[in-house]
Amino acid sequence: MAAEGPATRRVQVAEHPRLLKLKEMFNSKFGSIPKFYVRAPGRVNIIGEHIDYCGYSVLPMAIEQDMLIAVEPVKTQTLQLANTNPLYTDFSTSANNIQIDKTKPLWHNYFLCGFKGIQEHFGLSSLTGMNCLVDGNIPPSSGLSSSSALVCCAGLVTLTVLGMNLSKLLAKYRGLQWDKVLRLEEVQAKLGVSLEEMLQITEDTLHPEPYSPEEVCRCLGISLQELRTQILSPNTQDVLTFKLYQRAKHVYSEAARVLQFKKICEEAPDNMVQLLGELMNQSHASCRDMYECSCPEVDQLVDICRKFGAQGSRLTGAGWGGCTVSIVPADKLPSFLANVHEAYYQRSDQDFTFEKQSLFATKPGGGALVFLEA
């Protein structure tokens, strides 16, 4: 493959079975040939959970599984979406009158979000229509960002049709302002202390017992009405207890683990995998106990993965279900997959329908790309 500009490659479609199959299905569906293809990978958070929106870095990894879309711009203003998976029904709408029903998480809404996001960001009107055929092999609803990959693909599709360079979009965001709402990272920055010192401040300042709304108001010197209208989000206004100590302790300790993980990767000591695994195990314990975003099924899966050779294993994604990520030596991989399959999916008293996609190995994958046929 020869590079052709940022995030673009020319390929011989006939040499790539998945692209060739998608091209043939597109022709069967729309009676024409795609002009280009867009690909965006799923991702797994190796470490760093529930800290990004607090202002801290996480350590994600693109996986090999991805979303792939075949695209043909058309002269009409109709946007036609189809999916290679028959479970996802076809959808069509006007490219210049995008309506997204937020109450229904239908698959095409994720595409529409990416399409409309680009449209609104650049203040565009009178967009051309297009035919799109989507193919994905990221396990859905598993915490591996299948929906985000589809949104990303849709944005790239729209930019490519418009002939815009992705770097223009990224450059615009460099000047964005921070949120006006204080985040935990900003508290640390204003105090000018380390994450380890913030953990001690958390110990000294907050008590482990849950806070009531009234106690929060006394601490801040505000009324209950001010707490509900100025600080709490609509879905937390009726919360009766706040575990401030536990949540702050998770965020600061997890942020420190991400930095430790990065440092170990850079220094590459002889026992690197063991050290990285220990950090992943600590991360899971904190997610389970301090942030309370795990569940018994995930805890069981983590234990099984460690038992059969994972140096480290933890929940990934938002939690409360989803999936786990494990770091496994390559020579142990075949036995690891077989044993976890048997111990969790075949012997579990849960009603699991095992699929090949439910348990898989992956190396770091590539980023988002636009493919043009050579």
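Next protein, fold it too.
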Amino acid sequence: MAEPPVLIRQDEVEGLLHYKDLIPRLEVALGKFSKLDSAEVIQPVRTTVPLQKYNGFLGLMPAYLVHEDILCTKLVCFYKRESGSTLPSTQATVLLFDPEYGNVKAVMDGEVITAKRTAAVSAISAKLLMPAKSEVLTILGAGHQALSHYNIFTETFSFKEVRVWSRRKETAERFAQSTQGHVTVWESVEEAVNGADVIVTVTRASEPVLFGQWVKPGAHVAAVGACRPDWRELDDVLMRQAEVYVDSREGAVAESGDIILSGAKVFAELGEVLNGTRPALREKTTVFKSLGMGIQDAVSAKLVFEQWKNKH
């Protein structure tokens, strides 16, 4: 008889999941995904259940990595909250299965996993695509994803200046005060991104907040928000003038309003760049449109579970 699943709480996940261990595993998983070998990686496009009463939806994100024998699914609720709302914009739970027996081995908080694996993939995109001498980082948004992106980008790269913008200045100021480094708060997006080498968009926007005319030629944009077909963070000018990279072509053309509504063409998946089958065009303006994938959650959950077992 299978043992009952272990419950791994948010604070435990936070202490067990480290970027230095996570990034190389994510790079391997992204590369395998882009080889399109269904004998290696099985990951359907996210299934969504609308929650119209609450202006949100439930997303189901299963994945199976055959060689690593990782079977996992994440259940995540997204909400489009009004500005100033104290309710969470996301809630997530990750289930890790024993693929042979079919039982759930672990139930773990999905918020930290989502924040860290998303930021790690954005950092991988920057490592591949940002200008060689990148000195200025701008973060648009000041929530949990903003903090995870700040942490990994300042841990991995050497920026001379970090800027933040949020619709509510007090939110941006609280974010800046919560960080360990010096972060400057800017009152407008245009000013915040002026001259920036790397721009991370982690907003709740459903209409564009970042416009191509403001973006420095050759800059790299990691666009993380706007995960629905009718939501946008970036305008048509930016989407059409940039070389667009994604985590999954199939996911992007089904879920990304930035891509669907602009008519932008996807140049490559990150995994293709990691595999050497598509180039990293550092000299051009680049956009990495992140939607998140089940394999990213699966790799992260397996790492958390391994670390948890080592401690118990």
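About the second fold: Residues 111-129 form the longest helix (19 residues).
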